Every structure is written in structure tokens, then in C-alpha cells.
């Protein structure tokens, strides 16, 4: 939960902070999101391989979370960085976000996420996926509602101190309380770290894990569309619809809470191998929700739209997490978390915001924020995202066929 709150702070409020305190520039946001995504992916590969070799996740989780929180606070110091020349301020926030993302990946992506795979199995990962999918949504609810109130009350820097400090405390708590899986053993390549690190980049790996890689493609297409609108949703509410941060947080929080409650019963369908059907339903809900957001600036309409898109996001995330964990090779879980990050974080967070920059610059409106002019996103961003996320159906078809064949094979093996 603490980690997801920190990611929420980065994904929602870092971008809003840049618009409010640096400049209303979608290009800075695009660069910041893209660079941090590349850094995150590298860190997950590197530390994932290292944790596989060591047969330990706990040290990486603890150290990662502590430094993650520390550099979240450091990012907030960008507010006091000279704005002239503008390029130096932009470079500072991009670099600070990248460093924070590196340690976030060490603690959360390569550490904690792999640890959850170690301690679970194929029979309970639907429930685990539900819990893990609820975390970013609950974090968004907490982060949106509480963050909006804090920022409206004391401004950004104290807010970053509070959030970063919370994550640091959880990292310290982890040192004394978290335990590695008793079945986790070191997996060392006798040819050395570099050979083991590069071994996963092999066409044979794809051939041996076809279903997994098609699921990765499902992740890629969906999250490209998702990252077109999500980094800018708070900016849209605050700067285009002119809502304060508290109301912005309440709309997102209430809609997403409803989404979590409505998606809880789906765990049993995921555990029964019906992941493709769940994702198809999620895509429909996501499309309707994003479309509804574009219809009106009235609060009830926005709540319905956020609810629909929230259901789509939570169900997709929950289902994909459980699906891929069932397909990871047991002795390369850390490394495969790195591969997941390419499709889940790196490429979507580079491609999605790049598309968003083009959309905002061509279909946005000119605005002035804190004395600086720039482009503000409009409803068009959500329409583009709705269309792009719907294309997830294309890789879902072969993933469904391979999933069906695997489940039938398992059933035949049990009957024999």
C-alpha cells in the first residue's frame, strides 16, 4: 500500500506539480515519464537478476523503500530550484524523478512484486491479484483525496515530505518484520552475473513461453492507451475543468472505490482460468467510462466515467497480474519481472505520453498557470485513450487460445 501510494504520488502529483510549479508543458511530463520508465525497467532487470542469484528479496525491498521515500522528498525540492534558465529546471525534475524511480523499482518491482510470486501459488493468485490490484486503487483514493486536501492546505513540498516519510518508515518496518519465502533458493549461473543477466534476452525464451509473451503484448497495448490519459487526468480536472485539488481527489477516489467493490467477486473467475473473458469485460467498461468523462463537466457524470474506467483498470490489472505469475519460470522470477516492466512500464510510459503530447499540442487549449503559458489537455485525450485501449482485443485473441490449450492440457493430465 505504501509503495502504491508513492507510485500514485509520482504518476498523478509529480505531473501536476510540474504544471503548477515549473511550467505547463506536456513535453516535460512526457520526458519525465519516459526517462523514469526506462530507468525503472533497467533497475528491475538488474536487481531482479541479483535477487535471483542471492536467493533473497528482503534486503532489496527494505533498502529500496527507504531510499525511494528519501528521493520523493528530494523531488519536491525542485520547487525551490531557479526557473531561469528553464532548461535547467526541466533537467532537474526529470533527473530527480529518474533517481526516485530507480529506488522505487528496487524496492517494489524487483523486490516486493517478485516476493509476492515466491509466497503464492496457482490456486490463490486470483485472490492475490485482487488484493494487489486493489492496492493501487486504494492508494489512488487515499492519494487523491488526502493529497488534494494536504496540497490545498500546505502546498506541495510538505506533501512530498509526508508521503516520502511514510514510505521510509515502511521500509524500516520491513527490516524487522518481512520474511523471505522458505522455498526461495539462490539461482546462480556459473558463467557469471552478466551471462545470467543477458540469458533472458533470447528468442528461445519467447518460444518456450508463448502464452506469457502474448499476455505481455496484452499488457503493452492496454497500458499504452492507459498512459495516454492517466498522467494528465488530474491536470485535466484541475486546469481545464477548474476544480480544486480536493474535489479532483474526491471524484477520482469515490469512482475508484466503487470500482474496487464491484471487481472483488471476479477473483474466482480468474482462479478458474477465465482471465481472457474478465479482461474483455474490463475493456468494455473502460471504453464506456472514458467516453462518459468526455460528455460533461458535471460531478455526477465525471463520477460515472471514473467508475467505468476504474473498473476497466482494476479488472485488467488484477487479471494480468495473476495470469503472468502463473506463467513465470520458477528459477527466473526476478528476471521475468524485468521483462514484465518492458511491457508494463517502459514502452507504455514512453509511447503513451508521447502520443498524449501530440494530442494535447494539437487538440488542447492555450492556458496560463502561475504566470507561464502552455497547453492544457481537453476531452480529446480520453477519446484517443478509449480507442487505443480497445485495441487490446487484438493480442488477447492468441493469448486466449494458448490459455485455453494449457488449461485443457492440465485437466487431461489430472484425469490421467
From TrEMBL:
Give the chief site where it resides.
membrane
Q: How does it sit in the membrane?
A: Multi-pass membrane protein
Q: Which residues form the Major facilitator superfamily (MFS) profile domain?
A: 1-404
| Annotated PROSITE patterns | MFS (PS50850)
* Pfam families per record: MFS_1
- Subcellular location(s) per record: Cell membrane
Q: Tell me which domain of life the UniProt entry assigns to the organism this sequence originates from.
A: Bacteria
Keywords assigned by UniProt, alphabetized: Cell membrane, Membrane, Transmembrane, Transmembrane helix, Transport
Q: Membrane-spanning residues where?
A: 28-48, 60-81, 87-107, 128-151, 157-178, 212-238, 250-270, 277-295, 301-321, 342-361, 381-402
Question: What is the name of this protein?
Answer: MFS transporter
Amino acid at each position: 500500500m505504501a509503495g502504491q501510494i508513492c507510485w500514485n504520488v509520482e504518476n498523478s502529483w509529480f505531473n501536476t506539480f510540474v504544471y503548477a510549479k515549473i511550467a505547463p508543458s506536456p513535453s516535460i511530463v512526457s520526458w519525465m515519464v519516459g526517462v523514469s520508465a526506462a530507468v525503472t525497467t533497467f533497475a528491475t532487470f538488474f536487481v531482479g537478476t541479483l535477487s535471483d542469484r542471492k536467493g533473497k528479496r528482503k534486503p532489496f525491498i527494505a533498502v529500496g523503500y527507504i531510499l525511494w521515500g528519501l528521493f520523493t522528498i528530494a523531488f519536491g525540492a525542485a520547487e525551490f530550484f531557479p526557473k531561469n534558465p528553464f532548461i535547467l529546471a526541466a533537467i532537474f525534475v526529470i533527473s530527480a524523478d529518474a533517481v526516485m524511480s530507480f529506488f522505487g523499482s528496487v524496492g517494489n518491482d524487483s523486490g516486493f512484486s517478485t516476493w509476492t510470486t515466491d509466497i503464492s501459488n496457482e490456486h490463490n493468485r486470483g485472490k492475490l491479484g485482487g488484493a494487489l490490484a486493489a492496492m493501487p486503487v486504494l492508494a489512488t483514493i487515499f492519494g487523491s483525496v488526502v493529497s488534494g486536501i494536504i496540497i490545498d492546505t500546505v502546498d506541495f513540498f510538505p506533501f512530498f515530505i509526508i508521503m516520502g516519510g511514510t514510505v521510509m518508515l515502511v521500509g524500516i518496518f520491513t527490516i524487522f518484520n518481512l520474511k523471505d519465502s522458505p522455498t526461495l533458493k539462490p539461482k546462480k549461473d556459473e558463467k557469471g552475473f552478466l551471462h545470467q543477466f543477458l540469458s533472458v534476452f533470447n528468442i528461445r525464451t519467447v518460444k518456450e513461453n508463448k502464452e506469457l509473451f502474448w499476455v505481455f503484448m496484452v499488457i503493452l497495448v492496454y497500458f499504452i492507451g492507459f498512459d495516454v490519459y492517466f498522467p494528465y487526468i488530474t491536470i485535466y480536472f484541475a486546469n481545464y475543468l477548474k476544480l480544486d485539488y480536493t474535489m479532483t481527489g474526491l471524484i477520482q477516489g469515490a469512482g475508484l472505490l466503487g470500482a474496487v467493490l464491484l471487481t472483488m467477486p471476479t477473483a474466482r473467475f480468474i482462479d478458474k482460468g477465465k482471465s481472457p473473458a474478465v479482461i474483455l469485460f474490463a475493456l468494455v467498461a473502460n471504453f464506456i467510462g472514458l467516453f462518459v468523462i468526455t460528455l460533461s463537466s458535471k460531478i455526477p457524470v465525471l463520477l460515472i466515467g471514473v467508475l467505468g474506467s476504474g473498473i476497466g483498470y482494476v479488472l485488467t490489472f488484477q487479471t494480468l497480474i495473476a495470469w503472468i505469475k502463473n506463467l513465470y519460470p520458477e528459477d527466473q522470477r526476478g528476471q521475468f519481472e524485468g521483462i514484465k516492466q518492458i511491457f508494463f512500464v517502459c514502452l507504455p510510459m514512453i509511447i503513451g505520453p508521447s502520443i498524449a503530447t501530440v494530442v494535447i499540442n494539437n487538440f488542447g487549449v492555450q492556458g496560463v498557470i502561475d504566470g507561464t503559458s502552455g497547453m492544457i489537455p481537453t476531452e480529446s485525450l480520453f477519446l484517443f485513450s478509449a480507442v487505443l485501449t480497445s485495441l487490446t482485443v487484438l493480442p488477447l485473441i492468441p493469448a486466449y487460445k494458448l490459455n485455453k490449450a494449457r488449461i485443457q492440457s492440465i485437466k487431461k493430465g489430472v484425469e490421467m
